[in-house]
Amino acid sequence: MLTSSHWIMLAMLLGFAIAHSGLAALRSWGETKIGARLYRVLFALVSLPLAAALIIYFISHRYDGVVLWQVQGIAGIKETVWLLSAISFIFLYPATFNLLEIAAIQKPQVHLYETGIIRISRHPQMVGQVIWCIAHTLWIGTSFTLVTSLGLIAHHLFAVWHGDHRLEQRYGEAFRAVKERTSVIPFLAVLDGRQTLKWEEFVRPAYLGVLGFVVLLWWGHPWLSQSLVISR
Q1: How many CA atoms, within 13 angstroms, populate the side-chain half-sphere of residue 142?
Q2: Taking 70 as the threshold, does the pLDDT of residue 103 lie above it?
């Protein structure tokens, strides 16, 4: 049975998708009006609070609805879930992104990346989100988590089309050439010879940050989950 929290989560996901993808679509226009740095700040001021609200609501209601399966007591499941979660963060926060641009310390720009994790998938954030959803839906096993995961995956699949469309509009033939040499499906371009992995491209400080974040999350996850449940 779908409780009210299922529908609230879907509405929140829809609102986030409209705000996030809408602001991405308006980026070129907005930067001509207020500049690239200020538009990045505006983007963050809208997207980050919405994302934080989604995370808090998900943690608080993750056990709502029907229990579809219960595998937490099976040997190896916990370790599998944490391994998948760690892998998902590597894709969700790829080191090919310039962290100084994300923070608007440097002027934010649109790039045609074709190195590092982009060799594995042209849309690493979509891949990371799918892996994260699989891991958490497997572990929790409720209808609320399944609905949340399906909503998140749907948004990221739309973002694959939306991102490619925006880059093609901006770069034309240059992007189409990159698109031809890369793949959305992980490792497909590597397996069919369009790309060759260069492991030295993954030796970057940002990946140490991702590793540190995973370790911190491992340590603080029980406390965070419990505190949010108590605050309901």
Answers
A1: 17
A2: no
